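Q: What changes when uridine-diphosphate-N-acetylglucosamine is included in the input?
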Amino acid sequence: MKILITGGAGYIGSHLVKQLLNTNHNITILDNLSTGNIETLNTIKQIRDFDFIELDLKEFKKVDKFLADNNFDMIFHFSASILVSESVKNPLKYYMNNTVNTTNLINCAIKNGVNKFVFSSTATLYGDVKNIPKDGLHEKLPTNPINPYGMSKLMSEQILQDTASAHSNFKFVIFRYFNVAGADINYIDGKLSPRIGQVVQNATHLIKVASEVALGIRDKMAIFGEDYDTLDGSGVRDYIHVDDLASAHIRAIDYLDDINNKSDIFNIGYGKGFSVREVIESMKRVTKVDFRVNIEGRRDGDPATLIADNSKIKEMMGWMPKYDDLDLICESAYKWEEGII
Ligand code: UD1
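A: The predicted holo structure follows.
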């Protein structure tokens, strides 16, 4: 199959590309390299060569021509702005980069006969759910995004749904990601040695921040809020290893190829929550570093708990996690960080 991956130089996209390069599919990456990383592309090129075009999705005419010139069968659309707090300060950036560019890409796909589309969405869409069901958040729950980032993704989901209703050949898979973390599970001489991972300045993600503190890149970190209605008062999230997330996308290829399957939305997480304190304990355990942690007030827009009900993706795609071990997630994040300083 001929597959286009937007944002393939980014954190999650590159982990999918790494897995795709071990299949027979023909791979093309489209990325503007604003947050994507050229070194990541050079690293995964060692697995196998692929096509790369440096292009911004806002260049509508060029994107259209590029799709017209290539007969893609399928698009994985990762390119997006992803910071919740930035989206509150600069909503138009999020509606432009996420909703407008996605609309244009879908339009180009329809015009050029690309009928399979996989979209990266987010658990942020569920908002601050007060009574989390025992089995976690199910796809059928109402969406209620509490920030422009979530809204920009929800609007894109709606545009995909309406497009699929109007164009019977067009099918999509929407993945709602929970908290993606960790780095490439790769062993050299029995030692965990990630080749790719998250590259970002001024990181805000908990596991990335904790890795940086353990390595001494930062001198301390904070727990944002200890008065949540959770077991230990700190926020609870469902952390999923990026390689398990990527493997769900591989499953989406067969899912969309099967004429019996319909367009659908899938949560992707492990169905298990860990508190901020538990994550910090895990990072301290695997690194054997006892770093400084302060307690601060809640961060704006943070819900108390986000845990996936993942029964749908397991049942309908046969997806099974391989790395659902918080210590392994933390260790791989740390080893990656250690390798790039
Ligand atoms: C993350 C992503 C969001 C995605 C969502 C899906 C960002 C910044 N966040 O949100 O795009 O849609 O997952 O669920 O891109 N925390 C601390 N101290 C820190 C950092 C974080 O206590 O230094 C806490 C937070 O308050 C939260 C938890 O750790 O309770 C996780 O935070 P973070 O890793 O930033 O992810 P989310 O905000 O859940």
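Observations recorded in class: DSSP finds eleven helices and 16 strands in the chain.
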